């Protein structure tokens, strides 16, 4: 049976127009390279937006998926399953958490976190303790609740009445939080590294001060590690660099290495407020997703891989600055590990999309984080030779743009 031939133009005819994909369709991937319908090869520094932690078609993931696919796909949460219990056990052993809830996407994990925070506060302090404080330019998902908590109005406007009880303060600004937090605050939500907001890491002192304020006002501290978690920063989760522990942590993206799965991790006393029937997810904790994520965790949470992330960061950061010495395109390199933001210099401001398109024409996939930042989130095990080749292709793309 032959698959029907489709082209990029079919997207514009068939799909809801909320995306603007590039003008080629990838059909195959291996390691940190992908090939399109014409057989053209690209080096992938985008990583499916920080998802493909082990690149494409990793043999260990393939083995875990096919092994589980021959056994059990779905049973619903009327029953539990072995992969879910094994994965939960390993996540708990590796983190601050005592309990895990599985879902399918970062937005769902954050939705669960925000609902749990409000339910915990309702049960322990009363209905008036419902304020959630988040940061401007944050991103927490696309559901109505998560897009309201996210601090980017362009994503929440035009969808009817705004949800109440949500406040926003500037990121990395403890004085601003002090002005807003109160006894009615149930949770403060922070990305340890703002991803969509421009790849901006939080200061460790700031995170420690937020933790102190949350304790003072009996509010939960939620870390959204959807983009920064699962080895991306050189530690299993970004909070581990600061030594500041949250009460709730959300993970997705790299957790499944490309298979849709997310997790909300929390402490036992907080988890107790999600009693039977209070929250759920039909596919959450399904055997396929959990089997793949368990294998990803086994591979990523090793000294070899985590140390390698730091080495690869250095290669990329040094290479980008060397490139910028010849073509002054980047003002600075920020981020942590393999979540990198290359901030465009004044002369190149607003051109992140053009750089992305020019790079693609040279066989290189990169991302943007706003109009002024080129974002890189490649495989955590990208070969060093691929990094060197990627920098050469980027140099060619930028030279073409610079004229």
Write the topology of this structure.
Blueprint: H1 8-14, E1 26-30, E2 33-36, E3 41-44, H2 47-50, H3 59-69, H4 82-94, E4 99-103, H5 106-125, E5 131-135, H6 144-149, H7 153-156, E6 166-169, H8 174-180, E7 185-190, E8 193-194, E9 200-201, H9 204-216, E10 220-224, H10 239-242, E11 248-251, E12 262-266, H11 268-271, H12 287-300, H13 303-326, E13 330-336, E14 339-344, H14 352-361, E15 364-365, E16 367-368, E17 373-376, H15 384-402
Parallel strand pairs: 3-15, 5-6, 5-7, 7-10, 10-11
Antiparallel strand pairs: 1-2, 2-3, 4-12, 8-9, 11-12, 13-14, 14-17, 16-17
Helix pairs in contact: 3-12, 4-12, 13-15, 14-15
Keywords:
18% strand; globular; 17 strands; EC 2.6.1.11; 7-stranded mixed β-sheet; 403 residues; pyridoxal phosphate binding; Aspartate Aminotransferase, domain 2; Acetylornithine aminotransferase; PyrdxlP-dep_Trfase_major; alpha/beta; AcOrn/SuccOrn_fam; 4-stranded mixed β-sheet; Aspartate Aminotransferase, domain 1
Description:
- This protein is an alpha/beta fold and 403 residues long.
- It folds into two domains: 8-57 and 303-402, Aspartate Aminotransferase, domain 1 (Alpha-Beta Complex); 72-300, Aspartate Aminotransferase, domain 2.
- It has helices at residues 8-14, 47-50, 59-69, 82-94, 106-125, 144-149, 153-156, 174-180, 204-216, 239-242, 268-271, 287-300, 303-326, 352-361, 384-402, and strands spanning 26-30, 33-36, 41-44, 99-103, 131-135, 166-169, 185-190, 193-194, 200-201, 220-224, 248-251, 262-266, 330-336, 339-344, 364-365, 367-368, 373-376.
- It has a seven-stranded mixed beta sheet with strand order 4-12-11-10-7-5-6, sandwiched between helices.
- Strand 8 and strand 9 form a beta hairpin.
- Helix 13 (303-326) packs parallel to helix 15 (384-402) and helix 14 (352-361) crosses helix 15 (384-402).
- The termini are far apart.
- The mean pLDDT is 97.
């Amino acid at each position: 049976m032959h698959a029907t031939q489709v082209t990029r133009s079919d997207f514009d005819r068939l799909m809801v127009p909320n995306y603007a994909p590039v003008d080629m369709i990838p059909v195959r991937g291996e390691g940190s390279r992908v090939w399109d319908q014409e057989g053209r090869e690209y080096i992938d520094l985008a990583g499916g937006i920080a998802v493909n932690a082990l690149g494409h078609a990793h043999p260990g993931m393939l083995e875990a998926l096919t092994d589980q696919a021959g056994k059990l796909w779905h049973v619903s949460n009327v029953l539990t399953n072995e992969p879910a219990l094994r994965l939960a056990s390993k996540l708990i052993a590796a983190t601050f958490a005592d309990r895990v809830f599985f879902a399918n996407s970062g937005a769902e994990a954050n939705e669960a976190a925000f609902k749990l925070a409000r339910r915990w506060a309702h049960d322990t302090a009363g209905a008036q303790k419902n304020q959630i404080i988040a940061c401007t330019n944050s991103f927490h998902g696309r559901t109505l609740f998560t897009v309201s908590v996210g601090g980017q109005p362009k994503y929440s406007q035009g969808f009817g009445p705004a949800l109440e009880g949500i406040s926003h303060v500037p990121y990395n600004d403890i004085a601003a939080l002090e002005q807003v937090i109160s006894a009615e605050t149930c949770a403060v939500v922070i990305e340890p590294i703002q991803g969509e907001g421009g790849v901006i890491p939080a200061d460790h002192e700031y995170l420690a001060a937020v933790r102190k304020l949350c304790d003072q006002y009996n509010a939960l501290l939620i870390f959204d590690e959807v983009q920064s978690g699962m080895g991306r920063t050189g530690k299993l989760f970004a909070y581990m660099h600061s030594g500041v522990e949250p009460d709730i942590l959300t993970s997705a993206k790299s957790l499944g290495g490309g298979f849709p799965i997310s997790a909300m991790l929390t402490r036992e006393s907080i988890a107790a407020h999600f009693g039977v029937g209070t929250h759920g997810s039909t596919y959450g904790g399904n055997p396929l997703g959990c089997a793949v994520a368990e294998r990803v965790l086994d591979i990523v949470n090793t000294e070899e891989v985590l140390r390698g992330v730091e080495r690869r960061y250095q290669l990329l950061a040094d290479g980008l600055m060397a490139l910028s010495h010849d073509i002054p395109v980047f003002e600075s390199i920020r981020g942590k590990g393999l979540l990198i933001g290359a901030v465009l210099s004044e002369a190149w401001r607003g051109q992140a999309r053009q750089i992305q398109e020019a790079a693609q024409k040279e066989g290189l996939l990169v991302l943007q984080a706003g109009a002024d930042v080129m974002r890189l989130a490649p495989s955590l095990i990208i070969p060093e030779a691929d990094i060197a080749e990627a920098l050469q292709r980027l140099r060619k793309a930028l030279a073409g743009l610079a004229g």
